[in-house]
């Protein structure tokens, strides 16, 4: 079937062509990697959770005015999305110091930041996704100045909306990574996924980590953390 043409296989997802040239099918895998692929494993049930959670959040963001690539969920693990040209920048937003920010600047994990921080990383596995300044991005032709302004605006809007949505689920949104794509019209839309793979989420009361850091740091209870986040977001769990 023409539908089965594999266009791309990443660490956590496969992307297939469909009969519509403007639409692709994304299949979420249970595979997990960290530290640029150095650490590998499987998180049972992750594909289904990340797919459904991303879709729930993309619908919520769309309802609040953020354009996304989302079209239609077609199974637990599969979604149709608009075909975009991915902008080669990972856009990270941080509310609380953690991860590479804590390490780079020697600031204790858990320290609140005085306002949300937006960072750009060059999406390039061979280089280990280095942090880039606006000038780096411009001189390397990764994006235009207008693009960077739009990415920052959208990322901060997404942050405000997600902080609120996760708070309703008893979760603190510490930081997260977004990817954006360009439609044939030139419009920039939110793409990729929003899941415990791409967000740091802490329990609001205990500050327990409920995200991929449990896998990265060998903390155990990885599957349970993903299930907990998904159950809370769906609103199915009494706390
Ligand atoms: P960092 O502290 O390691 O820079 O990560 C910041 C956020 O970005 C964190 O929520 C995890 C997410 N992230 C990804 O989604 N993919 C990546 O490859 C990396 C390094 C981080
Ligand atoms: N996804 C990235 C990798 O595979 C890193 C991470 O999420 O920590 O290496």
UniProtKB/TrEMBL annotation:
One Pfam family of this chain: SAICAR_synt
SUPFAM superfamilies for this protein: SAICAR synthase-like
EC annotation from Swiss-Prot or TrEMBL: 6.3.2.6
Chain ranges of the SAICAR synthetase/ADE2 N-terminal domain: 6-232
Sorted UniProt keywords: ATP-binding, Ligase, Nucleotide-binding, Purine biosynthesis
Entry's Gene Ontology molecular function annotations: ATP binding; phosphoribosylaminoimidazolesuccinocarboxamide synthase activity
Catalytic activity, reaction form: 5-amino-1-(5-phospho-D-ribosyl)imidazole-4-carboxylate + L-aspartate + ATP = (2S)-2-[5-amino-1-(5-phospho-beta-D-ribosyl)imidazole-4-carboxamido]succinate + ADP + phosphate + 2 H(+)
GO biological process: 'de novo' IMP biosynthetic process; cobalamin biosynthetic process
Keyword RNA-binding: no
PROSITE patterns the UniProt entry points to: SAICAR_SYNTHETASE_1, SAICAR_SYNTHETASE_2
Metabolic or biological pathway, per its Swiss-Prot or TrEMBL entry: Purine metabolism; IMP biosynthesis via de novo pathway; 5-amino-1-(5-phospho-D-ribosyl)imidazole-4-carboxamide from 5-amino-1-(5-phospho-D-ribosyl)imidazole-4-carboxylate: step 1/2
Presence of the UniProt keyword Ligase in the record: yes
Family: Belongs to the SAICAR synthetase family.
NCBIfam families, per the entry: purC
Record's protein name: Phosphoribosylaminoimidazole-succinocarboxamide synthase
Gene this protein is translated from: purC
